[in-house]
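Put briefly, the fold is written as integer tokens. The lines below illustrate.
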Amino acid sequence: MKVTCEYSKMGSNHVFVRFSHVINKEINQFIREVYKTLIIKQPKGFIEVYFAYSSLTVQFDLTKTSYKVMKKDISQIIGDTTISKITYGNEIIIPITYNKETGPDLDYASDYLNISKDEIINIHSSGQYMVYMIGFLPGFCYLGGLDSRIHLPRKKTPRVLIPKGSVGIANSQTGIYPLDSPGGWQIIGKTNKKLYSPNDEQPFLLIPGDIVRIMKT
């Protein structure tokens, strides 16, 4: 698989690379392969690389290289990267409790979607989700693959506090809050599974490429 991409400068020492404007498993895996190669090869002046659903950003040291040279180095790595098929990481089972207390936005979701709360729960809990990226909070997993029947808009006014373990929906994504936090996702359930353990060698339960299945409790 080969892809096209667009380059742009972010500030004075970042190269932003946009691969697509849609959420796509193949594109996301391609980006993850580029990410791994950049970490291994570390072109001259390389500091760090971050990736999202369909883009990545490389930070570099202006005293050792330039935007033009770093862009060329990244372009070479992208040109040499290929994937023949999608591969996944671990399959993780996440228990989720859906009720009025754990899912305070279920009533809103039912009214907005014009389907019953039980149907929303059944659709959400029967899905298979891929972890596309980690971000916003340590261990916050952005999960793709949400059934279009239960897409919900973000809240117009975010909550000041969403409890750790809350399961939310925002547009075509679903995700789990690993820590108590403000947030604007529609909350439909909650898990007691620990997603973030900062003192462990591997602090995150989920990493990009993993598959999440839900056990309704």
Observations:
- The first helix runs from residue 25 to 41.
- The chain is about 20% helix and 30% strand.
- The two ends are 40 Å apart (CA to CA).
